[in-house]
Each structure stands twice: as structure tokens, then as C-alpha cells.
Amino acid sequence: MSTLHTVNKSPFATTALVSCLGHCKDGDAVLMIEDGVYGGLAGSQMAPIVEEMGKKVALYVLTPDLAARGVDASRLLEGIEGVDYSGFVELVTKHDRTQAWL
Amino acid sequence: MKFGVLVSEGPYTHQAVDSAYNFVKAALAAGHEVPRVFFYHDGVNVATRLSVPPQDERNIQENWTALAKEHGVDLVVCIAAAQRRGILDKNEAERQGKDADNLAEGFRISGLGQLIEMGIQTDRLVTFGD
Amino acid sequence: MSDVKKFLYVNRRAPYGTIYALESLEVVLIGAAFEQDVSLAFLDDGVFQLTKSQDTKGIGVKNFSPTFRALGDYDVTRLFVERESLEERGLTEDDLQEIMYEDEDDDWAEKPSIKVVSRAEMADIMADQDVVLSF
Questions:
Q1: Which of B28, B53, C1, C112 is most exposed, with minimal Cβ within 10 Å?
Q2: pTM of the predicted model as reported, rounded to 2 decimal places
Q3: Which ipTM value was assigned to this complex?
Q4: What is the CATH number of domain C6-134?
């Protein structure tokens, strides 16, 4: 049993991403959408935290939201996978429940 | 699978409504069912038929109305949240003694029970909010 | 076949600054009629929803905190409050309202509905649910 967590806010704006990562279990996935995609940026102050806390989960960003914000995939932390909306749908079906961190 | 979607923020101000719409379209395209989308908190404001966004921008309400028409998605607006925010259908307007109603086509006003029912009857519930 | 699912209502926001706390409680009350397996989670700023002595006269909005005390009558008896969230905010369990329910399996003995749990326990509780509603 695993959970897909969604985070839609920037980690520089709210504590949603950090709180989410603090409650993940092994095998969970975290999908960053909307402004949440900034949580995937390498070289930011949040990067070490995301990297460390993200070790036991699969990290994803919604690529349309990345593109909208002009963030190239090369700017993301290593290990973060980009998915489009159909990938989002697949993640929802793959995991037993979806939990939004608003 | 059957997906239920909860939309917790209003149109234009938050991206949540757009994300939900895009998600629902992708789910339907993948062959899943989306029997219901429930609008709560400011999400009820999606259902006003009086919005006039700029011509070169998406018309959020019309998009949802078309989705309901084409795919039979049940768009439910929470009555308590709608009353607070002034989203009324004809019945509600008469009941409450208001001189106008504004509910758009394809949406229906109902109780919070519809949200719980959605949770019970679907395989996955996805929330879009802020 | 059982239709009973585990529902968790996740509360992470303070009361009054936004409507989410109040409107989430409204879902809990209506939802009680569906006799599902309901739990409430209070973490991050959500723990502030349960503090004692809320007096809203000066801001002109309704004080809805007494409603928590009625949850027991609706068979909603599990309010999980995260310890780390309390500590981060300089709060203790003493700062929270006393919310009780009557345990029909124990001669209607009055018991506390609030259960303070660790972050790790909260994660386990979340991982055990069928439906998670976040407000």
C-alpha cells in the first residue's frame, strides 16, 4: 500500500513540501505540480532538504507546469522524473490513495 | 478506475481549477471514468454563468460545462459553500428570496453528502486546492 | 461486502484566518451520517484549531470551536494531534480543548477524543486510510 502525495505550493512560500516529505513512507511518491515544481530545483536552499527527505520516495514534477514557468528539466535535482498529465493519472492509479498537501 | 475529484479553490485566482480540469481530461482520455467532480470552498465560484473572462483566455466555466455535456461528468456544487458565496440556482434563489440566480449549465447544487458518497463510490479521490 | 471506508480529514491550517477549518468541520458533521470509519488529523498550523478560550467577539466572526465538543455525539471520536506540530508552536496538550466521547463499548465511559501522536505515528495513520480529504 502506498500513497501519491501532491504538492502545489513553492517550498519557498509555504511549508507544504517539507511537511509532506516529513510524513512520507517508503514506497510513496511525491508529485510536484503548479508552483510546487520549484521544489525540484537543484542548487536552491531547499535542495539538500528535498534530496535528503526524498530518499525513500519517488519524486516527480508535472512537466507542463515546469514548462509554463520556464524551468528547464536540466535545472532539476537528479532523480526527479518529469511526467505529463497522463503520467499524473497513471501515478494516481498506481498508488492506493492520493493525498494533497495544500 | 473511477476517479472522484474535489476542487477547493475558485477560478482564475488559483491554478487548482485548471489543474483539475486538465487532470479530468487526461483521465477520461486514458479510458477512466470520472463520475463526479465536487466543488467546495471557493470552488463553487466556478459555477457562475455570469463570468466574462477576456476573449483570448480560457473560459473556465464553459470548459467545465462542455466537459459535463460531452462526458456526463456530474458537477456538484456544495450548497452550504454556494449559499455563502452567492451561487444560486433558480430554486435556491426563490427559496432564499433573492432576485436572481446564476448557476451555469451542467452544474447542480447539492449537499456535502455528495462529497462523502464520491469518496465511497470511487477508487481514487484527488484534491485540487491551494 | 462492506461499504465502510477509512476516511481521514487532514487539517493543517489555523482557524479564522481562512475558512478551511470551519468548512472542513462541516464536511465531518454531514459525513458522519454515512457511518464510515472517520478520523481527523491536526498537524502543522491545524493544531491551532483545537486551542481553548477562543473568543471571536472582537473580530465579528462566529466562534465555531464549541462544535468540536459535539463530535463525540456524531461518533467521530478520533482526533489525532501531532506532537511535533504542537512543540514547534510552543503548545502542549494543556492548551487544547477537552473533547470527550462516550464509549458505548465500555459502559458509556467518558474518554478523550484527542490523541496526541508523533509525526511518525501520524504518517502511519495517513498510510492506513482509504480516502484522504485535505482542507
A1: C1
A2: 0.98
A3: 0.97
A4: 3.40.1260.10
